[in-house]
Design brief:
34 helices; 3 domains; globular; binds ligand 26W; alpha/beta; six-stranded parallel sheet; nine-stranded mixed sheet; single chain; Rossmann fold
């Protein structure tokens, strides 16, 4: 065991120890002296210096959890969006100030090093970021946890805006090497695909042998996940696919060089790239391979860990582990656990099913029918023949149970079958629900709608399984890390930092809301964030923003149900007013959009082009350019979110009610003092209830009203006829005002709006515009605005991911924290 002295240098947190460790890593890891080190070298050296301090806790935690045979939550997610690690780990370790001083003493600007870190973009949006927030809270609450997923070589595409259009470029996050991961060549599992099954009898026992025609290896890569100001460090284990044989020498010697590396290329394809779709279901074979690959690697790994300290055979598996399925993407795990328990560990069907159904829980993140995954039976027959057999058996036994309750109700029985009516598709949500003991939505409204719509038949069968856990976000990354001026103002006002791990303590800020002097300092802090963002935009996009205008921000994946085009209609309306009445006194506004469109989603890409086209006109027109400014911020991701959320005054949460399962950006905006204009959708409902109805700008039809309009029949044309400004706005688009006179460019969007308008922009336009009027009124009164902004922060405590994780621990996982001592 390293001497205390050596440990002091290697993992001491004093400025001296950090400096020595940093210079050692620069010399011995990067093989560089200070004067010829690149910013990349300096970043890597600092990353290894911080990593060493993490690994200390990491190894201790792993030992403690093993020693305690601690009950562990395994979070299965096809996506994780952790964001850059360096600053977050320094904040959690409590060494950021010392490192900032140490680098300053060496003449290094820490922020330039932080900017060097590539972002692990292993996710599309909300679902992936939620998984990362939950991993941060699990470690902070000292709950033993393993995040299982895929180590995509290429994450979400890099978005460039060329001539106003989104252009995707390949993400190369691993290019410079990743100091935050540890390759585990000893943790490798064979993953089988294809082939056939045969019934056999082994020492009298009926057995099924699956002979695959492909085997790929899954290799573990571990990333430590630190908790805030404690010694618990959990594990994010991501799987990389590799060929069993990476080089076929025989083929090479025969000169067939392609064949020599075919297996390697083919096998590595599985973890090659993230599917960039955020709702619409791709249904591609490689996607199913990815889902089965990480499900099987993860379950084999858990059984390996369990059998290290087997208390009473695999029947005890659900006592040791609980698995959370992050949407249906890992739902094949239910069937894979049955295969492993029966075919490999020879449990009986009933014992295996008892273990399985007590091990899984499932979270639904979307109501969009096209996002509910179904896989063709023929694809399963080809790729996973053994699993298809097991699915039929699970379904047969399930329907036996269903008939007990709904005998004769064939519609119900058919609706409850894993196999859809056509017999051609396997419904993954059904497998997830049948194999889980708990099913939850991600906001109160969403969990209600899940029970009333997409899963209502399963709800009728098992009402006791359905619960709600409203989403949350980590205040460490989305306030302490990304908005230090506001965090230190709050710390100064409250005189402590306890609120960082107990966000409800922000309530004490309520009294400050009426305090004029504090309001002044609050406004100055908000303005400084707008200035920081304006400088970044000036340097990177050659566009000047007015930091004294209202920053009206909508950042999220581009999707019609999120209605970025409704926001665009508001901008056109304001522009129109200013054009027709130069004395119009609309307070100056800066509209900032950000978000990626799935590459195959044409309408979403057209929405981006509409926004950039409106910007080209409004930002240049002398009549409007000093009053309105429109920016489409390229490549919105976690890193850029750090500078956008703090600078926002108005948070646009304008989805059609009933469509946004929860939203989490809405929480991050409020946490940073932005006021929300939104519909009664997802978590907006609960945010409005917490911050106070007077501190929330509400508009639009409710989910019930939307359903009623749908049933009655919706005619957007009627709304256009009744609203001249709406008609004019659409007309400007249709007549090519924003497209150099080209009337074809936006025709699909205009026809959609005037035709079906499935997301009811026309129906909500009037109340949206009026609500925006109220926003402008409120903005004219800085004290009133500051008061509402302070109250939004003071009352946002419920939306900490710590609260959400506590809910999961108490109501779903039944798991207790395990405290890891600092130097145990
Ligand atoms: C099959 C393609 C695919 C990929 C991702 C379908 C669906 C998804 C995700 C479920 C989409 C997603 O990220 N949903 C978002 O999840 C957030 C976290 O719960 C919610 O806050 C958002 O409202 C929801 O849209």
């Amino acid at each position: 065991m390293a001497s205390k002295k050596h440990e002091q240098i290697r993992t001491g947190n004093s400025v001296t120890a950090l400096k020595q460790a940093f210079l050692d890593n620069l010399f011995y890891v990067q093989a560089r002296y200070m004067d010829d080190a690149s910013p990349g070298d300096l970043y890597q050296a600092l990353a290894y210096t911080v990593r060493d301090r993490l690994l200390h806790h990491f190894n201790n935690s792993a030992k403690q959890f093993k020693y305690d045979a601690a009950r562990t939550i395994c979070y299965f997610s096809a996506e994780f969006l952790p964001g850059p690690h360096l600053a977050n780990n320094m904040i959690n370790l409590g060494i950021l100030d010392n490192v900032r001083q140490m680098t300053a003493e060496l003449g290094i600007n820490l922020d330039t090093l932080l900017a060097e870190e590539p972002e692990p973009g292993l996710g599309n949006g909300g679902l992936g970021r939620l998984a990362a927030c939950y991993m941060d809270s699990l470690a902070t609450l000292q709950v033993p946890a393993i995040g299982y997923g895929i180590r995509y070589e290429h994450g979400i595409f890099k978005q460039e805006i060329r001539d106003g259009w989104q252009v995707e470029t390949t993400d190369k996050w691993l290019h410079g090497g990743n100091p935050w991961e540890i390759r585990r060549p000893g943790i490798v599992f064979p993953i089988k695909f294809g082939g056939h099954t045969e019934q056999t009898r082994i020492n009298g026992k009926f057995r099924v042998r699956w002979t695959p025609d492909e085997i790929v290896n899954g290799v573990a890569y571990d990333t430590p996940v630190s908790g805030y100001h404690n010694s618990n460090v959990n594990l994010l284990r991501l799987w990389h696919s590799e060929a069993c044989e990476s080089f076929d020498l025989q083929a090479f010697n025969k000169g067939d060089y392609y064949a020599a590396v075919h297996d390697k290329i083919y096998s590595e394809n599985i973890s090659k790239v993230l599917y960039p779709n955020d709702e619409p279901e791709a249904g591609k074979e490689l996607r199913l391979r990815q889902q089965y690959f990480f499900a099987s690697c993860s379950l084999q790994d858990m059984i390996r860990i369990f059998l290290v300290a087997p208390d009473g055979g695999l029947q005890g598996f659900p006592q040791k582990f609980v698995i959370q399925l992050n949407d249906t993407h890992p739902a094949i795990s239910v069937v894979e656990l049955m295969r492993l328990l029966i075919d490999v560990h020879h449990l009986s069907w009933d014992d295996a099913w008892e273990v399985t159904r007590n091990s899984f829980c499932y979270t639904n993140h979307t109501l969009l029918p096209e996002a509910l995954e179904t896989w063709p039976v023929h694809l399963f027959a080809k790729l996973l023949p053994r699993h298809l057999e097991l699915i039929y058996e699970i379904n047969a036994r399930h329907l036996d149970e269903v008939r007990l309750q709904f005998h004769g109700d064939n519609r119900k029985i058919a609706a409850l079958s894993i196999i859809d009516e056509s017999g051609k598709y396997i419904r993954m949500a059904h497998i997830a629900c049948i194999g889980s003991s708990r099913i939850n939505g991600v906001s109160a409204l969403h969990s209600q709608l899940v029970k009333q719509t997409v899963l209502h038949d399963l709800y009728d069968l098992w009402p006791q399984k359905f619960v709600n856990v409203t989403n949350g976000v980590t205040p460490r990354r989305f306030l302490v890390l990304s908005n230090r001026p506001l965090a230190s103002l709050i710390k100064e006002r409250l005189g402590h930092e306890e609120w960082v791990r107990d966000l409800n303590q922000l309530r004490a800020l309520e009294s400050a809301a009426e305090d004029g002097a504090f309001q002044e300092r609050w406004r100055a802090t908000q303005r400084s964030a707008r200035v920081r963002l304006s400088n970044f935009v000036h340097e990177n996009f050659a566009l000047d923003l007015d930091p004294d205008s209202m920053f009206d921000v909508q950042v999220k994946r581009i999707h019609e149900y999120k209605r970025q085009h409704l926001n665009a209609l508001h901008i056109i309306t304001l522009y129109n007013r200013i054009k027709h009445n130069p004395h119009d006194d609309t307070p100056p506004r800066t509209f900032i959009f950000g978000g990626k469109a799935a590459p195959g989603y044409a309408m979403a890409k057209l929405m981006i082009k509409l926004i950039t086209s409106i910007g080209d006109v409004v930002n240049r027109d002398p009549a409007s350019r000093d009053r309105l400014r429109v920016l489409f911020f390229p490549n919105f991701n976690v890193k850029h979110a750090h500078s956008i959320y703090p600078a926002a005054d108005l948070s646009e949460q304008i989805s059609l009610a009933g469509m946004e399962a929860s939203g989490t950006g809405n929480m991050k905006f409020s946490l940073n003092g932005a006021l929300t204009i939104g519909t009664l959708d997802g978590a907006n409902v609960e945010i409005r209830d917490e911050v106070g109805h007077d501190n929330f700008f509400l508009f639009g039809h409710t989910a019930e009203q939307v359903a009623a309009i749908r049933n009655e029949g919706y005619h957007p044309w009627e709304f256009v006829q009744r609203n001249a400004e709406l008609a004019q706005a659409i007309d400007l688009i249709r007549t090519g005002y924003f497209s150099h006179g080209d009337t074809e460019l936006f025709r699909p969007l205009v026809d959609q709006l005037m035709g079906v308008d499935p997301y009811m922009l026309c129906a909500d336009f009037d109340s949206y515009i009026n609500c925006q009027q109220q926003v402008s009124e409120a903005w004219r009164n800085p004290d009133h605005w500051a008061r509402m902004s302070i109250l939004n922060v003071a009352r946002i405590g419920k939306f900490s991911s710590d609260r959400a994780i506590r809910d999961y621990c108490e109501n779903i996982w039944h798991i207790k924290p395990v405290l890891v001592g600092a130097d145990s």
